[in-house]
């Protein structure tokens, strides 16, 4: 059996697929991963023993361009940008995935909606199985949560019926992505679909997040198979300089915003808040290329690093609330402070606060004062105790569970 795993996104989208691919290969399934061909992802997949088949473009520069183009645009212009990019992604990603899917029996797609649409088209054209995957329950139609709000398509004020809002979500996705998807279908000699959201989602969906952190409440709008987060074991040692820094004093506070292009002021605010409490900082540079505020010996800057090895040795983790980072900190029982920016990050921030394993900032722009108050909460002994308790409930077998389920599912359909 050959399965193509497809995604277009940042490290938080690629690393879980490396874990799933490795789990599939351990069962004798040939797994291929189509992902952005950025150097960091090629190295990541090589470490997992998986071949990389490039997606339509590297993602880091593409993401920077999209951020720059949308930063000062009106909601209407941002909506047009989304639709225009969707058409380009569907067409380009369809070509990339058509080649990657050669000889495959199934396609499992994560990441951007237009990229998943291209994967669904490839599967349909080849007559092979298709499955959508996601890392957070809020993206799935459910009476228990509201849909995501898009530029120039706000959810109607005062409406609390989530079922009605998910019906509106169908119209929104048709407006934003319908022309891109159906235009490509027509070019392939296929009839248009009336509901592009449900076409891309399919049913059921693979939900790859931890049930304790992000529980799925059954929905009659869609079926989801929740397996737990896909975690790639990381045996890499920490850099010598970081080891020396960790050993030179009490546990520091980790600060990192991953692929989120936060302003440099966010890193400065975090370092100042940590320093004001007499603590040290490990500063992850990330895509924002954060740097220490001065040459003080209480701050150590690192590039990409083994979070599984590091997080258990820090006092707290300040981060953006990506699904992967949230799960990594929760697994080590380390208190968290989340500064949510976009997408599902406000959801993870809320869940961390609800579980009592950390604190969440209200809004995406941190200050030294707001971070200091959040750290006060996160560093309280009761939060540390609670974080260690919850750590025992976090599953480590999500990729294995998903691999077994996919093999059974694909076996039934073939």
Q: How would you characterize this protein structure?
A:
- By secondary structure, the protein is α/β, with parallel strands linked by helices.
- The protein has two domains: 2-231 and 396-413, Rossmann fold, CATH 3.40.50; 240-391, Glycogen Phosphorylase B (Rossmann fold).
- It contains 15 helices and 13 strands.
- The strands form two sheets. A seven-stranded parallel sheet has the order 3-2-1-4-5-6-7, sandwiched between helices. The chain has a six-stranded parallel sheet with strand order 10-9-8-11-12-13, with helices on both faces.
- Helix 1 (11-26) packs across helix 15.
- The longest helix is centred in the first third of the chain and has 26 residues, at 75-100.
- It is globular and about 65 Å long.
- The N and C termini lie close together (10 Å).
- The mean pLDDT is 94.
H/E topology pattern? EHEHEHHEHEHHEEHEHEEHEHEHEHHH
Number of helices: 15
Sheet of most strands: 7 strands, parallel
Fold-level CATH name of the largest domain: Rossmann fold
Beta-sheet strand percentage?
A: 5-15%
Write the CATH architecture name of the largest domain.
3-Layer(aba) Sandwich
What is the end-to-end distance?
Answer: 10 Å
Q: Biggest sheet, strands in spatial order?
A: 3-2-1-4-5-6-7
Please, what is the CATH homologous superfamily of the largest domain?
Glycogen Phosphorylase B
- Total number of distinct structural domains: 2
- Give the CATH level 1 class of the largest domain: Alpha Beta
Low-confidence stretches: none
Query: What is the number of strand segments?
Result: 13
């Amino acid at each position: 059996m050959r399965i193509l795993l497809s995604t277009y996104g940042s490290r938080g989208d690629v690393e879980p697929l490396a874990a799933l691919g490795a789990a599939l290969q351990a069962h004798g399934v040939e797994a291929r991963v189509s992902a952005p061909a950025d150097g960091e992802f090629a190295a990541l997949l090589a470490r997992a023993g998986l071949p990389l088949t490039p997606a339509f473009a590297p993602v880091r520069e593409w993401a920077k361009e999209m951020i720059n183009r949308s930063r000062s645009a009106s909601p209407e212009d941002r909506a047009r940008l989304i639709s225009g990019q969707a058409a380009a992604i569907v067409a380009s990603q369809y070509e990339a995935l058509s080649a990657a899917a050669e000889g495959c029996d199934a396609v499992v797609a994560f990441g951007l909606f237009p990229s998943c649409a291209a994967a669904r088209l490839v599967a349909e054209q080849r007559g092979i199985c298709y499955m959508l995957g996601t890392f957070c329950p809020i993206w799935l139609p459910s009476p228990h949560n509201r849909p995501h709000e898009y530029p120039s398509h706000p959810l109607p004020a005062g409406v609390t019926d989530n079922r009605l809002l998910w019906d509106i979500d169908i119209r929104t996705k048709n407006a934003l992505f319908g022309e891109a998807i159906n235009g490509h279908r027509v070019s392939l000699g296929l009839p248009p679909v009336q509901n592009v959201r449900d076409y891309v989602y399919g049913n059921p969906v693979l939900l790859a997040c931890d049930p304790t952190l992000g529980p799925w409440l059954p929905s009659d709008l869609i079926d989801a198979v929740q397996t737990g987060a896909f975690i790639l074991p990381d045996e890499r040692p920490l850099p010598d300089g970081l080891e020396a820094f960790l050993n030179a004093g009490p546990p520091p506070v980790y600060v990192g915003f991953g692929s989120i292009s936060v302003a440099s002021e966010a890193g400065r605010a975090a370092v100042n808040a940590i320093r004001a409490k007499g603590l040290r900082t490990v500063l992850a540079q990330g895509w924002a290329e954060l740097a220490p505020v001065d040459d003080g010996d209480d701050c150590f800057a690192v590039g990409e690093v083994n979070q599984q090895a590091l997080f258990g040795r820090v006092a707290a983790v300040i981060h953006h609330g990506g699904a992967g980072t949230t799960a990594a900190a929760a697994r080590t029982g380390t208190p968290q402070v989340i500064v949510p920016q976009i997408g599902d990050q406000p959801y993870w921030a809320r869940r961390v606060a609800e579980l009592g394993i950390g604190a969440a900032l209200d809004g995406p722009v941190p200050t030294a004062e707001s971070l200091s108050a959040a750290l006060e909460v996160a560093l309280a002994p009761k939060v540390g105790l609670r974080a260690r308790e919850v750590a025992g409930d976090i599953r480590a077998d999500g990729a294995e569970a998903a691999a077994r389920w996919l093999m059974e599912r694909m076996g039934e359909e073939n």
